[in-house]
Each structure stands twice: as C-alpha cells, then as structure tokens.
Amino acid sequence: MRFLRTLLFPLLALTSFALARSSTGDSVLVLLDPSLKKENYSIFFGDLEKKGYKLTFRSPKDTTPEIIKDDVAQFAHVVVFAPETKTFAADVTPQSLVSLLSKNMNLLLALSPKQTPLTSLASEFSLILPPPGTPLISHFPKRDTPATLIPVQPPRAHHVISDNLAPVWFSGVPQSLGHNPMLIPLLNAPPQAFASDADSDSGADALVEAAEKSGEGLWAGSSLSLVTGFQTLSNARATWVGGVEMFSDEYINKEISKGVKSGNRDFARDVTAWTFQESNVLRIDSVEHNLVNETLPGETYTINDQVTFTAFISKYDPEIGWWRAYSDIDDMQLEFTMLDPHIRTSLPPVEGEPGMYAVTFRVPDRHGVFKFNVDYKRKGWTYLTSTSMVPVVPPQHDGYPRFLSAAWPYYAGAFSTSAAFILFVALWLAGDDRELKKNKGAKAE
Amino acid sequence: MPLAYSLPSNLSPATVTNTSSLLRIISLALISGAAIASRLFAVINFESIIHEFDPWFNYRATRVLAEKGFYAFWNWFDHTAWYPLGRVVGGTIYPGLMATSGVIYNVLHALNLPVDIRNICVLLAPGFSALTAWSTYMFTKEMKDESAGLLAAAFIGIAPGYISRSVAGSYDNEAIAIFLLMFTFYSWIKALKTGSAFFGTLTALFYFYMVAAWGGYAFITNMIPLHALTLILMGRFSSRLYVAYSSWYAIGTLASMQVPFVGFQPVRTSEHMAALGVFGLLQIVAFAELVRAHVSSKQFQSILFGSVIGIGLLGALAFGGLTYKGWIAPWTGRFYSLWDTGYAKKYIPIIASVSEHQPTAWPSFFMDLQFLIFLFPAGVVLCFRELRDEHVFVIIYAVVASYFAGVMVRLMLTLTPVVCVAAAVAFSSLLDTYIDPVEPEASDAAASPAEGTSAAGAAAAASDAGSSKKAKKAAAPDPGVASGILAAVAPSGSGPKSRGIFGLDTRGLVVFNALGMLLFFVLHCTYVTSSAYSSPSVVLASTNPDGSQHIIDDFREAYYWLRQNTPEDAVVMSWWDYGYQIAGMADRPTLVDNNTWNNTHIATVGKAMSSSEEVAYPILRKHDVDYVLVIFGGLIGYSGDDINKFLWMVRIAQGVWPEEIQEPNYFTPKGEYRIDDAAPATMKNSLMYKMSYYRFAELFGGNQAVDRVRGQQVPKTGPTLDYLDEAFTSENWIVRIYQVKKEDPLGRDLKAANAFANGKKRKKSKPLSRRRAVA
C-alpha cells in the first residue's frame, strides 16, 4: 500500500500542480459589502487569485450565488468582508455561518467596532468583544497617524505567521479570548494598547466602571488578540480579523518608517494560507496494528500479546499541491484505552521511513474492547485523531500452559491411586477367596 | 368376597399384563402429545419466535454454536456485550441448553433435514416437556405404582406452573432443566433402592448434565445430601445408601467441575459444602459400622460418643477456618435472599429488581397448580403412612420446595414436580379405593351375588374399568394395599373385615366427582396457558373493538430500525432488561444486559438515566454511547415501561453513588411518585423522564396529555433535550430511540450551542479577570 502511495505521489503531484494551493478546494466566495470598494483591496484579492483561487464576489444582501445548494457546499472558503453590515441575506445568518464550518468550509471574518450580527457570532467562538464603538487605541510609539491606526509587531517564532515580518498596520476592534483551547491568536495587541471610545472620553467611564467591577477585566494589554484563528473539532478553520482595513491597498502600501514597507501583505498571505488550509495541514493516511513479527492486522488480540501500532502521517505541501510524508512530530502519543487509558506511550517517528510512526507495546492483562487512540491537538495544526477498536480476549481454552511443574504432586497422586486400584482389583480377583466367603456368610447369619 | 360390579373372569393374567402395558404406552404417548400441544399456543397465536429476554441470548449463543462449532463457542468472547468490558461467554454460561440444541441441529442436518436453528430453539422446550412427563412417570412409579405415575405424568404435562417456563419459544435453561431434575431424582431413588453403583453413576451423569444446563443445580446438590443425612439420622444407614451416595458424589462432583462456569466452586463455595460434609459423614458412619462389627457394643458406645463430638467439632472448625481464610467463598447474596426476603432489597437492589425474584402471591399457587395444591398435602401425608426411603425424599422435597416457592415466584417451577407427584399419589389412592370392586363382608350390606374370583382377576378388571375411563389409570397391582392405606388414613375404628366401600352409588359419586376435578383441571390449564403464559412479550396483542386481534409489534420495529439505520458498531444504551433483545434482534453492542454480573456497570447506566443531561452526557461519551433506547408505555398503557422501572435504576445507582443520586429526590414531598406538574425537579430533569415525555404533549394537539399507565396528566410544555436528538419512535411510542450528539465543533457545551441554533441571544460576557483588582 505504501509502495503504491510513493508511486502515485509524483503523478498526482504533477496533475494537481495547476490547481489551487489549498488542501480543501479553490473556490472562494467573498461577501463584500458594497461600501468597501473592491478596488481598494486589489492587492489582497490579486494575491489570492495569483495563488489559483477562484473568487466569486457577492454582496451580503444578495441571495445568489447560493453558498449551499441542495445541502451541498458550493464553495470551499468564504470571506466575509462586511464589518458594518447590519442585515444579511437569509443564508449568511450567524447560525448558517456556523453550519458552514461543520460542512468543512473555512471562514475569514472581519469585525468592526460597530454592533452587527457578527458581533454576537463572535461570542460563540469564545471571543469577547469590547462594547460597541470602542476600537483599539494606542498612543505609542509616537507617530503622525491617528491613535486608532497602530503599527503592530507580528509574533516571532509562530508556526502560522512567518518570522521577521515587518510591523503591520491595524485599526479596528480587539478581542479578548475566552478559555476555548481552539483559539489561536495570530496577532496580539501591543502592550500599551487598549480599547476605548475614540471620539469622546464619555465612553471611557463605562469601561473603567466595568474594569472596577470585574477586576482587571479591561480590554487592554498584550493579551488582547487582533487577529484570531479558530480551528473547529472537524478541522475547519475560521479567522476573525479585528479590522478589515489591514487587508486594504492603503495599509499594505503604507510605510512603517522611512523606506520600510509594512508587513500587511505578507501577514495577509500567511493568515489566508492558514485559514484556507494551505499551511499546517496534516492528516493521518492510515493506521495499522498487528502482532509483533506479523504483517496481517489482528482482528482480536489476546492479553499480554506484543502489538505494534503504526500510523502514517503526511503534511500538505502547498508548493506542489499534494501531500508529503511528514516525520517531524516528536510529541505524539498513543493511548490504548478501555474507559481509561490502560497504556499511554509516545508514538515516535521511525527513522528511515518517512511519515511512519510506530510503537510496540504489551497489551494489558485485561480483556475487553480497547481502542487505539491517537489524539494529537496542537494549536495551529490540524487535529490528528484516530480511533480503531479492537477486542482483547482472554486466552483460548487450549491457550494456557499445560503440564505445569506445580501440578506434579497431583499427577503423581492421580496415577498412583489408579495404579493402586488396578493392583488391588487384580489381587482381589486373582486371590482365592472361597474360604473367606464362607466365613463371611457364616458371620452374616 | 363380594364385588360391587361383575368382572370378566375369562382373561388370562398374561393378557391382562400385556394389555395394561400397551395401555400405559398409549397413555404416555397421549400425555406427551398433550404436553407438547398445549405449549404451542404461542406459535399458533403469534408466530415461531423466541420469547422474552434471556431466551434471546440463548438463541444467539446457539446460533454461534451451530455456525462455528463447539470450540469456537467455548472460546467465544462477545465484545458487543457489556461494552466496553466484553463478556467471556464460554466461561460465564451454562452451555447445556445450547449444546443440546446444537446436537439436535447437527443430527437433523446429518439426516439431511435442513431444519432452521430457530425452530429447534423454539420447539425445544415443548419437546423436553414430553420427556419431563415420562421421567415424572418413572419417578412416581417408584413412589407408588404405574397408575399414580401416569397421573403424575399427565399433571406435570399440563400444569401451568411448569408450562409458564416451557412454552414454545421460551428457550431458557429451565426448558430442559426440569426434565433433568426429575430424571436425576428418579435415578437417585433407583440407586438408593437397589444400591446399584450403575444407577448412582447414572445419577451423577444426569447431575452433570443438569449442572451444565441450569444454575438451579444447587437444588439437587443440596437435596440429595439432605435426604441422605435425614436417612442417617433416622437410623436408616445402609450399604445401598453408601454406594448410591458415594458414586453420585464422587463422579458427579468431578464431572460438574468440567463445566467452565462452575470450575472449582464445588470445593470452594458454601453452597456445595453440604454435599461434601454428608459425603464425609457417610464415610465416618460406614467406618463406624465396620468398627461396630468388630468391637463390643459397650466400647462402641463410648468410641462413638467421643468420635462424633470430636469429628463434629473438627469439621465445624475447619469449615469456619477455611471460610475465614477465604478458601471457601461465603454464602452469596442470592442465597441470603432466600432466607431473608428483605435482604435483597436492602443490600442488592439489582436482585430485588427482577420481577421473578419477588415473593409469590397466594393466588398464583392456585393459578399455577389448581386443584393439585389441595391434593398435595394429602399426598405428603400418604407418604408418611408408608415412609420408605423414597417417601422420605418426597417429604423433604415437598417441604423445601414449598418454602422456596413462597419466597420467590421463580421457584414455583421446582415446586411443581413434587406437587404433581404427591397429588398423583393421593389421587390414585382415591381412585384405587373407589374403583376397587371388592366390597367388605358386612352382614347387613346388600352384597352382589358375584362368584368368588381370584385376586388377579379382580385386579385385571379394575385396570380394565380404569383404562376405559379416559385411560388415566392402569392396573392397580394390589388393590388391597391401596385400600389399606386409605383405611388407615381415615381410621374408622372398626375391624379389618369392614374396610371398604359399599355399593355402586357411593363409588359412582366419588369417582364422578374426581373425574370432574380432572376435567376442570384440564380446562383451567388450557385457559391459563393460552391466556397468561403464551405471550412472547416481544410481540404484544390487544383486542380491537370488533373482537379481532391487534398485534403491537413496536419492539421488533424499533430493533430492526436500529439494525438497518445505524452503523454496525453503534453502541446502544438501555436499561439492562433489553440488552439481550438488542443484541439478538438489532445486533448492536450494548452497555448492559440481562446477565447482571457487574453491578457497577449497571449502576453507571442507572446514574446516566437518573441524572440531568449535563451530568449524563460525559458518562455517555465516555462509554461511546451512540444511541439511547427507552421503553415508554404512556401512550397505549403498556405498564412494563422504563418509568415504572425507574426507581430501581435510581436505587441501584444510589447504591454506588449515594452522594449524587438519592431516591427521596424523585418523590414529591408527600412521598408520591408523580410525573405530572407536581413532579419534583430532580425527576423532571432526569434523562429518563425527558426521554420518555419528550414531545409527548404535542401528540395531543393542545388537549391535556394523559399518561395512560400512571393515569396522570403530563405537563403541557414538555421537556427539552440539548444533548440528545430524537432518532426514532415506534408506532405506539413503546420504544423511543435517541441519538447522542457529538461534541459541538466550536467547543461550546451543547446546551449553549442548542440555544444559539434556536436563535437565542447569549448573555454578554465580560473579559476574564486574571487577578483581583486592588481596591
């Protein structure tokens, strides 16, 4: 099977080269509010099209083209650039956007300081938005732009965002993150930034009050996220962007400092690459389990068997548009579970076998229905989960050791008794007992 | 001697003997036919289907045995039962029933008779009931004579107490166990009478078969030692007893240890210690007899006195010590519940929750045995009159079985054979007395001017007259003895010359009355069998207004829905009653089933059913439950539903989690069990309540919804479900199946997700505070 894969791999890679970079599809629906001119975002959309995506534009209030037709998703990705739209068409309600995710479509959503249906949707993703009309403000570093237009340094050593990006221009609304572990902050606010009413200071009192009531519950500091990724359990990805302007031509072309271009363009590329499942996409090609020194998979295992579990993992390579064996995971674990994990062991890559991870262990001394569980969840990476069920049975009736040394006294007892009995019978029958009988008869009378 | 009616005198004794034995064979054949035929109501009224709950497992196991052979069956690990624990079937069942069916199946197929395994299973119990009738005949013959034997066979053939467990389709261990029980007893009596090691071995072999077939073998394990012990205490020790008991015990115990489920129990558990103790006692007594033959009686007295006390003390100490050290398992809970009827309810609710473990109600004695229950004491008294060794056995059996039958409904089954035997003895004595044509030589009686015939001729005539009357009695070998017994029972105080009955009218009256009783017995048995004991309980029947039969087939409808619409490894959770049926009909893994070996696992299901959704959901997910099945009878008034069993779930769960589940919370403050508006919050929030009444009120279109089982009004706004989806509800709402939702893809709890999907606004949340503000 793996030979077949290695054979097919270059072939398919060739055929798929012309296709899009995303692992899930190349059709993108852009819900663009008419107030945002398409021309203002030409670089962003142009970059996407250059990568091979087919963009379809539609106003949020239009009803065609449909996102889902006959219960089949028509697009692989949806970009919702309608931060100030108050009313959407019937198929882009918050509920239907969530249902898109469960159909494995990816979402890129833009927010604004205004209260819109998307604001209430954000809270379903454990994003906590500040009150309406309170964008992010920072007075540092000193610059000639308004306080709401902030240069933000992208994170370093982040596996979604490339290293050494120039600061990006941001203006919009920050998000405070809830406890949901599926959230991945892609861009954090600068430490000096906070959310506040930009136009007047009257709203600030409300914020301070809220802060006093709930402790340090202020929308302030570097724990705020400006661009937040979210990966659902079914591995669909949604990215929330605090302000749509960061993708605009204006911000992309705006210089950070003299002669230094802003990082917006590269940042947008990285964000869309992650959101549209180009980067950090893994999959488990197959899992196998068998007895040690056997190749056929076992249907059942007997307790105390030595069993090998093997998983083949590959990573999506957007350059060639196909999957490559991936051996760089070194913290994956395998659980052998019946109600509770009876065995939890590391599942290391096998050297010399690309993409192969294997471990051999002894099946516990407990019969029941066990599951081989691989549950690898790391922020920003596709969740790898695999469950295969296998019954572990007690030994067959003839599977136990025989002729135990501990049983020798019993064997000896059984055989000696039998021998003695035969001897006794032989003597009894052979012996002349006529006289004895006579005596007995006399006695009985 | 004067005769009440004339007898033919020209018959040779050989003719009489031959005719009577032919008539016996014909009668036995007819009795077998009646026994089988009366068990076929279920097949005729419904169809050839396996009944109830346990038989479904036996049937499934038999299919495995028939398809894969005996060794595969022995090693069968059923990973779909008790998910995810699995069940080692080969080592946890009594394989006798399945092995019997498997043998029949293979023999028929070897004869090129391609009979379906299901039909063999369905018809096994009626077939074995014919054998039971025959073995009861043999047993009773040892007690009295052939005519009593035929009566007993006829009684056991149609007595509802036995039919209740052996109608066609009731494919349970009891189906063959009663035959084995009676045959073991018969060969034991035979062995004891003849002192033959052959019959002792035969007893042991059938005992082994019984051990392989039914857990009730412990009854034999204790009955035979009890009988032996009683005989010893009565001073009736003999070499016959010694040979019979020793050969039975030695071979029987070794053989029974070959059954994997029994294993070393015969030497390790208290239930089997009586047999071992009596075996030891017999050896001592035999040795004492030997010593007595060699020493003088005075010395023997003192030796005996010392040794009896010494050995008794030693034995008791050894038993206590071994129990204390754990070498001998103490009595099990099921055993205690036989002595203290409240024990199970207090300590092991799982046992008490089984309806057949409840104490017997008085009317059921009459229902199951009709007039036999009145004749039963008379028969026992007659046994006292003669009191041979085998009569002692019947007396002990009668006393013990009466007690057990009073404690547990289920044990009515073991009482039925002895009732039939004792009643047959009594009834045949009655007939013997009143059909006997010999009249006493009384001076004033108008004796018929019959010529003096030989005693043999009279007997032959009696048998002829008897057999002409419905062929129920054969030759009475010695009418003098029988009338002697009766005379002794009703002492008249007169001399031996005046014993007997005068005239035809008295005879006619009593015999007519007796036959009337038999007739009504037959009518009663037929009625009870057809109306009470022939329902498969998988298929229910009701009557339409026009009198025609309406079949309610919800169970199979739902089980087939599961079979057709769910993935093969979808785990179904239900209360344990339905485990075997789901496994047998829907072929899906279940969490718990009728083999109630793991109390904690059952309590887990009980906890899930009786907690709120939020508490139950993690339990369901942990056990990979995909579907939850509940039985709800509120719509059509099916009273055996889960809401009525709910308190048992609560009690069993409370036994394991006393802090989380408390029974009083499920009652109103007044102590009522209600499901209407007044129901307590814990009840209304429980998963079981929600699943039962989910969307029930909508069915009534705005009218007041009424639960027809409880006779209470259901709240108009029914419960809502967040963690489960209704997947299927059968035609009459008896079976409702719910699908357990997967985790929300956004990681919310399902209640919030559901509220969002229904368009409810979420409360505005504040950012999480990471530390307290400094004031």
From TrEMBL, chain A:
<keyword id="KW-1133">Transmembrane helix</keyword>
<feature type="transmembrane region" description="Helical">
    <location>
        <begin position="408"/>
        <end position="430"/>
    </location>
</feature>
<dbReference type="GO" id="GO:0008250">
    <property type="term" value="C:oligosaccharyltransferase complex"/>
</dbReference>
<comment type="similarity">
    <text>Belongs to the DDOST 48 kDa subunit family.</text>
</comment>
<feature type="domain" description="OST48 middle">
    <location>
        <begin position="289"/>
        <end position="430"/>
    </location>
</feature>
<dbReference type="GO" id="GO:0018279">
    <property type="term" value="P:protein N-linked glycosylation via asparagine"/>
</dbReference>
<comment type="subunit">
    <text>Component of the oligosaccharyltransferase (OST) complex.</text>
</comment>
<keyword id="KW-0472">Membrane</keyword>
<feature type="domain" description="OST48 N-terminal">
    <location>
        <begin position="28"/>
        <end position="275"/>
    </location>
</feature>
<dbReference type="InterPro" id="IPR055459">
    <property type="entry name" value="OST48_MD"/>
</dbReference>
<dbReference type="Pfam" id="PF23358">
    <property type="entry name" value="OST48_MD"/>
</dbReference>
<dbReference type="InterPro" id="IPR055457">
    <property type="entry name" value="OST48_N"/>
</dbReference>
<comment type="pathway">
    <text>Protein modification; protein glycosylation.</text>
</comment>
<comment type="function">
    <text>Subunit of the oligosaccharyl transferase (OST) complex that catalyzes the initial transfer of a defined glycan (Glc(3)Man(9)GlcNAc(2) in eukaryotes) from the lipid carrier dolichol-pyrophosphate to an asparagine residue within an Asn-X-Ser/Thr consensus motif in nascent polypeptide chains, the first step in protein N-glycosylation. N-glycosylation occurs cotranslationally and the complex associates with the Sec61 complex at the channel-forming translocon complex that mediates protein translocation across the endoplasmic reticulum (ER).</text>
</comment>
<keyword id="KW-0812">Transmembrane</keyword>
<keyword id="KW-0732">Signal</keyword>
<dbReference type="Pfam" id="PF03345">
    <property type="entry name" value="OST48_N"/>
</dbReference>
<dbReference type="InterPro" id="IPR005013">
    <property type="entry name" value="DDOST_48_kDa_subunit"/>
</dbReference>
<keyword id="KW-0256">Endoplasmic reticulum</keyword>
<feature type="signal peptide">
    <location>
        <begin position="1"/>
        <end position="20"/>
    </location>
</feature>
<protein>
    <recommendedName>
        <fullName>Dolichyl-diphosphooligosaccharide--protein glycosyltransferase subunit WBP1</fullName>
    </recommendedName>
</protein>
From TrEMBL, chain B:
<keyword id="KW-0325">Glycoprotein</keyword>
<keyword id="KW-0256">Endoplasmic reticulum</keyword>
<keyword id="KW-0460">Magnesium</keyword>
<dbReference type="InterPro" id="IPR003674">
    <property type="entry name" value="Oligo_trans_STT3"/>
</dbReference>
<keyword id="KW-1133">Transmembrane helix</keyword>
<keyword id="KW-0464">Manganese</keyword>
<dbReference type="Pfam" id="PF21436">
    <property type="entry name" value="STT3-PglB_core"/>
</dbReference>
<comment type="similarity">
    <text>Belongs to the STT3 family.</text>
</comment>
<feature type="transmembrane region" description="Helical">
    <location>
        <begin position="391"/>
        <end position="409"/>
    </location>
</feature>
<dbReference type="InterPro" id="IPR048307">
    <property type="entry name" value="STT3_N"/>
</dbReference>
<feature type="transmembrane region" description="Helical">
    <location>
        <begin position="175"/>
        <end position="191"/>
    </location>
</feature>
<dbReference type="GO" id="GO:0043687">
    <property type="term" value="P:post-translational protein modification"/>
</dbReference>
<feature type="region of interest" description="Disordered">
    <location>
        <begin position="755"/>
        <end position="775"/>
    </location>
</feature>
<feature type="transmembrane region" description="Helical">
    <location>
        <begin position="303"/>
        <end position="324"/>
    </location>
</feature>
<feature type="transmembrane region" description="Helical">
    <location>
        <begin position="21"/>
        <end position="44"/>
    </location>
</feature>
<comment type="pathway">
    <text>Protein modification; protein glycosylation.</text>
</comment>
<feature type="transmembrane region" description="Helical">
    <location>
        <begin position="197"/>
        <end position="220"/>
    </location>
</feature>
<feature type="domain" description="Oligosaccharyl transferase STT3 N-terminal">
    <location>
        <begin position="23"/>
        <end position="422"/>
    </location>
</feature>
<feature type="domain" description="STT3/PglB/AglB core">
    <location>
        <begin position="569"/>
        <end position="621"/>
    </location>
</feature>
<dbReference type="InterPro" id="IPR048999">
    <property type="entry name" value="STT3-PglB_core"/>
</dbReference>
<comment type="function">
    <text>Catalytic subunit of the oligosaccharyl transferase (OST) complex that catalyzes the initial transfer of a defined glycan (Glc(3)Man(9)GlcNAc(2) in eukaryotes) from the lipid carrier dolichol-pyrophosphate to an asparagine residue within an Asn-X-Ser/Thr consensus motif in nascent polypeptide chains, the first step in protein N-glycosylation. N-glycosylation occurs cotranslationally and the complex associates with the Sec61 complex at the channel-forming translocon complex that mediates protein translocation across the endoplasmic reticulum (ER).</text>
</comment>
<keyword id="KW-0812">Transmembrane</keyword>
